[in-house]
Amino acid sequence: MISDQERREVAQRMRHETTFMRINREWYESEDDAVECGNRAFRDIAHSAIPYSNIHCDYIMTVERLAKLIDRPIGIATETPDGYGKCHTCGAEFLVSVPAAFRCEEENEADYCPCCGTPLEWGCEDD
To answer: Which of 1, 9, 92, 111 is the most buried (most CB within 10 A)?
Structure first.
């Protein structure tokens, strides 16, 4: 699972790449070889997402990695018989301040697993 720290590091590397792109803006905006400009821009982004992937040319892996960085997974939490919450992403059990039966919809959206950090929706594991 990708951590928030890792997301921040990739974002920082992408911002660093934009510095290079701004310096070379004229080349990127030229119509001389739009395909090469696009390929170069993608390689710069790929290198930000996965260091040195711009050399290995595994673009599928790079795009999958970018999708994982952008879309944080939402896990399911259920209440155990003894009143604890259980994260079905990592299996952690944790104290629940308000039982799920008494939560309003807005409260459910803000819950995160205290162990793995996954945003949680309260419900049935089979949902």
So the answer is: 111
